[in-house]
Amino acid sequence: MTETTAPRQRFAIVDIARGVAIIAMMAYHLCWDLSYFRFIAADVGYDPQWVMIARTILAVFMFLVGIGLVLGHGNGIRWRSFWRRWVFVVLGALAITVATYIAFPQTFVYFGVLHAIALFSLLGLAFVRTPLWLPIVVAVAVIALPFFYSDPLFNEKALSWIGLWQEPPPTNDLVMVFPWFGVVLLGIIATRRVRASGWSARLATIAPKGRLPRLLAFLGRWSLLIYLVHQPLLLGLIYPAASVMQPQVALRDNDFLRTCQSTCEAGGTSPAMCVTYCQCGLQGVDTNNLWNAITTGMVTAEEQALLDAQNRQCSAVIYPELNAPQ
């Protein structure tokens, strides 16, 4: 492939779509951070509805990568522009790996969104001008293969980025070749079909007016830079707030009281008396430093004695007759 000086084709609606996607990504990461520091009870990393939201946002991003490859290089590879952007993406990916390794050494990001964009951009270039049947066949294969084949070999971190593992590796973000490169190919296929059908000229004339479309288009044009800086900014605000407010303590206490209340009422005690009993129990757990025993279920003989004494004490609060002399 040779260098071309052909201008890049740009669509306002694509920039707007990127803007919407980067806002959705920032919102998701904000919720993930709030969940991690226990400001909210939802487990954003594992709850099925949140996983579906994350995958939807990722699918949009990968589809837009395919669109961008065709719009930028469909008339000929603009190598200088490609390599300049590609190096920027790679450096951003390396920065994320280093930063997450420092912050989360057990679950650091070794092949996340930017790592995938760097690799998929290189692979995708091979399909921007080939016969259209080729990316269609490869896309179907890449998306379908994980449903039919997996191997424990790919459980290893060194190969897990391929995506054919049987157990997901511990990492805060992993964008595997299978199936996500297939989504990039879908973006390439769709954009090539649009360009071949003559819709390009019509789409190019769509330029929504107003502040919101202009803002979204601006965010879309700078989506890569925004992706790099938004998470450090969010963490820079949330981490100090968590250190001061300690939301994990309040959430832990609420979980204890809710579970205790439910168990107490199930035993036939009135709700009002259960509130008193559980407040007493919470105070006892804090005073005797029994949180590890409560949360892990690993109770020493000494801790069991404290729990039994605490139970008797709190029971006597709601049933004073238990303290009456025999």
Question: Can you tell me about this structure?
Answer:
The chain contains 14 helices and no strands. The protein is elongated, with a radius of gyration of 27 Å. It folds into two domains: 12-243, no CATH class; 247-323, no CATH class. Helix 2 runs parallel beside helix 4. By secondary structure, the chain is mainly α. 71% of the residues lie in helices and 0% in strands.
What is the element layout, followed by pairings?
Blueprint: H1 12-36, H2 48-73, H3 79-103, H4 113-125, H5 133-148, H6 157-160, H7 177-197, H8 199-204, H9 211-221, H10 223-245, H11 247-266, H12 271-287, H13 291-296, H14 301-318
Helix pairs in contact: 1-2, 1-9, 1-10, 2-4, 2-7, 3-4, 5-7, 11-12, 12-14
Q: Which key features would you list for this structure?
A:
single chain, 326 residues, mainly alpha, 2 domains, 14 helices, 71% helix, elongated
Query: Percent range for helical residues?
Result: over 70%
The main sheet comes to: none
What is the alpha-carbon Rg in Å? Answer: 27 Å
**Count of alpha/pi helices:** 14
Rounded to the nearest angstrom, the distance between the terminal CA atoms is: 96 Å
On the 0 to 100 scale, the average pLDDT is 87
Q: What is the overall silhouette?
A: elongated
Number of domains: 2
Number-wise, the strands total 0
SSE run: HHHHHHHHHHHHHH
What are the low-pLDDT stretches, counting only 5+ consecutive residues below 50? none
Q: Approximately what portion of the residues adopt beta-strand conformation?
A: under 5%
Structural class: mainly alpha
